[in-house]
Amino acid sequence: MLEAENLECVRGERRLFAGLGFTLSAGELLYLQGRNGAGKTSLLRMLIGLLPPEDGEIRWQGRPIRSQKDDYHGALCYLGHLNAIKEELTPLENLLAAARLGGTTLPEDDAIDALEQVGLAGREDLACKYLSQGQKRRVALARLVVDRRPLWILDEPFVALDVLAVDWLAGIISGHLQRGGMAVMTTHQPVAIPAGRVRELRIG
Ligand SMILES: Nc1ncnc2c1ncn2[C@@H]1O[C@H](COP(=O)(O)OP(=O)(O)OP(=O)(O)O)[C@@H](O)[C@H]1O
């Protein structure tokens, strides 16, 4: 279970939010909503432990995340709105490297299957700098196909995807929730996630 209690966020001179709280259990999805600049990405950065809250506390499985950094980071998969892929590496190399950084070993055949699922069959060995924006996004999203960590934190995951890919990703997130996973997600576009309990939290 992920819990946030009485969170306050100040950036520069501005207080973006205060008194913010939620609870997220297995199989639940939290949609963060709010206008541009409301503080959604700032909240996600707090949830992954990169931005300490001005006030309040975030707990994972009942314990503050600041007291169990390794366990908590081992349980979460973060996908930022930048793709965090290495342009000089191929999609296959990027996916294998991301798994290693996340502390797991990914068999190469599984990585190739994941890239095929995201529509990159035949481009596994092309340096990512030669891919389109949408294809780069797909390389980043291929991580989700093979990720079995319980908590996904996703910043605008649907950006730059075509209609088919949006449906595909909604299915991947649904599968994660059905397996008892949890997800926190920002998105400016309404996307139907057909499985799991969906909650909404509006900031600002
Ligand atoms: N390091 C920083 N120093 C000062 N202000 C910052 C910093 N980082 C972000 N901000 C400000 O905090 C506010 C919230 O930014 P944030 O990225 O969290 O918004 P958001 O809700 O994710 O917006 P969007 O929908 O446009 O992505 C913005 O006004 C931004 O300029």
TrEMBL record:
Origin: domain of life: Bacteria
Domain ABC transporter: 2-203
Keyword Transport attached: yes
Annotated PROSITE patterns: ABC_TRANSPORTER_1, ABC_TRANSPORTER_2
GO MF annotations, alphabetized: ATP binding; ATP hydrolysis activity; transmembrane transporter activity
GO biological process, one term: cytochrome complex assembly
Membrane-spanning residues: none
Keywords: ATP-binding, Cell membrane, Cytochrome c-type biogenesis, Membrane, Nucleotide-binding, Translocase, Transport
Keyword Translocase attached: yes
UniProt-recorded name of the protein: Heme exporter protein A
